[in-house]
Q: What sequence folds into this?
């Protein structure tokens, strides 16, 4: 794992609630940042980015905005903050914008995206990033950051083999910290993903089934019991992948969820906006990895099936009838 | 099991979609029927019952309508067609209206209600009835019968021990058939209930979770697979109670559901009307009986928990927080 060049430019692919926020923080701190935009391109090119943040509001009147990757300069840090459901675009988007000695920093939940990105840029150029943040895009180029905001970075290695803490990770951490983003490092990306899945699988999934926020769920004894049973299965799934999560994790997460302000999960927001749900990364791939390790997660699987149905009905996607071939 | 007297009067407790329909059919055929009403009492006393039915519409301008059981004569056949969630009223409602040699005919889905009724009138005075009908109450004293309509009757015995076909059952069957109600008899009430639960547990439960009708579910591959997995668990639950259901049952039920016109289940209708769901009879008690026989039904249990949460949120019932005692 080589170090990154001393002079680092950042690209942000997917300049929404996550990418728009972290990219704006980096630019605010003086880094050169290049934003790929889609529907908001004209607005952001003309008016920049507005960030309402619990850490302090700010406006960047001028940002480097692009409508296509071909117009962007090669960057040493390419932050991918698309929805996981758009990852099929990456083989086309990444090559033009990733500098030779650069690295992709994937800010996405769940398992299975990094190996695909590694397939197109090489495993030595992939870093995983987990965001602990409550933020929304509330309008074109307008981001609202409500709570939290930390990032955890870890190197990807083939088959999710732990890569330890590299100099490169420390460079990225320094840049993020200088930009006011609390950033920690993990030697083991897969363990970090599983740990976050222990919360994301129950609370993202059940928030859609119950049409409820975190407080409504944690306060209902049955919803809480179901969340806990799902968490237990995820811990067993992690163990099947050789990751032993601490026994205190589940009670701690439940206690923290009690203390959180009522929170609409990202999957519930996607559902409300009739966007496709991130089911592959958060459900299908973890189920597959656990199964390869010999562990079934029956409740997780049932929730996954339910979410597939709800997602299809929500977006009016006709499911084929198995009797009509 | 004694025979019923030759001269039989019928009472109907719960004159809604089921009780209103079957009671009206009995009266139309010439039987003396006495209807207990609650919110519709004044309307029905003055204007009788209107039945729109796929078997032919009819109007009974004059019915015996009562606002309290104390005013009703003792009847030999007391049809209970309340929602199962109202069964706590029965110890008060039944004694005044049940003739000494009379029988309670409970038209309800699920397990566990007959033993409670037996506790208050004696097990030898309880008959279970399963209705295969699509009907709704669309206004006060106004019932719409959409499809199907048959009834299956079976004797209740302590611990749901099979009682065979009694002369009394045949008398009831004759009365129902004379009223145009296709009526079959079963020697084993518990087996009949389990058989119906094989359909009711998945399709009633999932229709609430998915906010979907039967066609939407049966056409979606994941919903169908989930329904089938739930059905399999229910078959195993039945086996734990010593009831071996035929292996052809599940494929037949799935095929029939495909052919059905799109159908909103009764639980979905209750949910839409923000009425309490019949979760005890259809979920909690079957889970308990299966467990007593050593069988867990994990998917059924998860669905049950989800429905408890949805039911509470739907009706705005605050769940206690386990951390606040």
A:
């Amino acid at each position: 794992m080589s170090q990154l060049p001393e002079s680092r430019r950042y690209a942000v692919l997917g300049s929404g609630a996550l990418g728009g926020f972290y990219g704006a923080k980096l630019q605010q701190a003086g880094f050169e940042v290049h934003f790929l935009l889609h529907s908001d391109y004209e607005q952001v090119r003309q008016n920049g980015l507005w960030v309402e943040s619990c850490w302090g509001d700010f406006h960047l009147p001028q940002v480097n905005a692009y409508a296509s990757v071909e117009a962007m300069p090669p960057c040493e840090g390419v932050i991918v903050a698309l929805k996981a459901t758009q990852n099929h675009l990456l083989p086309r988007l990444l090559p033009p914008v990733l500098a030779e000695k650069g690295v992709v920093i994937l800010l996405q939940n769940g398992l299975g995206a990094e190996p695909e990105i590694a397939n197109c840029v090489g495993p030595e150029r992939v870093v995983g990033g987990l965001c602990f943040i409550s933020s929304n895009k509330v309008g074109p180029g307008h981001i609202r950051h409500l709570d939290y905001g930390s990032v955890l970075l870890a190197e990807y290695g083939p088959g999710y083999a732990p890569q330890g803490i590299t100099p490169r990770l420390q460079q990225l951490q320094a840049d993020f910290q200088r930009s006011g983003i609390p950033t920690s490092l993990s030697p083991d990306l897969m363990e970090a993903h599983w740990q976050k899945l222990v919360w994301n699988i129950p609370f993202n999934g059940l928030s859609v089934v119950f049409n409820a926020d975190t407080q409504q769920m944690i306060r209902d004894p049955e919803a809480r019991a179901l969340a806990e049973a799902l968490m237990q299965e995820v811990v067993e799934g992690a163990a099947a992948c050789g990751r032993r999560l601490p026994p205190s994790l589940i009670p701690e997460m439940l206690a923290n969820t009690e203390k959180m302000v009522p929170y609409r999960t990202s999957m519930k927001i996607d559902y409300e906006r009739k966007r496709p749900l991130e089911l592959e990364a958060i459900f299908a791939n973890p189920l597959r990895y656990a199964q390869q390790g010999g562990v079934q997660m029956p409740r997780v699987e049932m929730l996954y099936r339910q979410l597939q149905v709800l997602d299809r009905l929500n977006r009016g996607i006709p499911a084929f009838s198995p009797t009509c071939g």
Summary: The first strand of chain B starts at residue 9 and ends at 13. The CA atoms of residues 46 and 62 of chain B lie 8 Å apart.
